[in-house]
Amino acid sequence: MPRHYDLPSLNALLCFEAAARNLSFKTAATELNVTPAAVSHQIRRLESDLGSEMFRRQHRGVELTEAGAYLFVALQRGFEGIAEAVRDVRAGPDTEDVVVQTTTAVSAFWLTPQLTAFWKARPDIIVSQLVSDAASAPGRADLSIHYGSMAEDDPACLPLFRDDIIAVGTSEFAATRGINSIHDLHGAPLIHVVAEGMEWTGWSEWFAKFGLSPPPGRGIVVNNHMIALQLARDGVGAVLGWTGLIDDLLDSGALVPLVAERMTSPQTFYLQTHTKASRQALVFRDWLAATKG
Hints:
The chain has 293 residues and is of the alpha/beta class. It has helices spanning 10-22, 25-32, 36-50, 66-90, 104-121, 171-177, 182-186, 203-209, 225-233, 243-252, 279-291, and strands at 55-58, 61-64, 98-102, 127-131, 143-148, 157-161, 164-169, 191-193, 220-222, 239-242, 256-264, 268-273.
């Protein structure tokens, strides 16, 4: 009989999701308790089944292709729903100590490194992530990370960071397009991040800061900042990046500042404590407050 769902091997999808989330076959293998060779085999099996490469293998690691980034976001959404149902069936809302809701970009570039440091300090507290680029995601969360206007007098909200916003792309993109000034950038291909319910600062606001009109044309529009950054790394266009999130990409040279202009972020990345947050969640929140500076 034909399969009801047209899906590749679930083991291959699990290996791919772990490798994409960590951008490392080795880390994914440790997480799944298998060998890196087994992860590599499953991903090659997936790529063969789909007829498309999910990763670019680099000397210093792996990078998602555009197809890989698209599948990764879809898988995370599906796995979030499955995990939520399993939590409800298995033991109710107290199975995990702390659940933090955040976007894919904040999870990959900021929160996950913070969790690594926290686990070393408090290995007795389990912190899980509910990763979604929707304004609100299904499932229980003790804490959530937002980018937007934060009420200064709200005790439930803790500012995390407010960095500069810069225009970034690859050095090859800058050379090919002849980008030497902000006026050159104004007419170059631009990648826009537009997500319902989110307040991402866009190109029009960024250019207005420096006295320029909105950029001509629609450009490339995506609803996920992680995919936008990957497209920029592929040389498709320029994207706006928050320095607190993309430091590693800048340090590695994967992306470079295209012009000297930088804009102080008009919005704040902040942590919100939910009404029914667990005691352990408050411990994690207080740890972030003590270490964020």
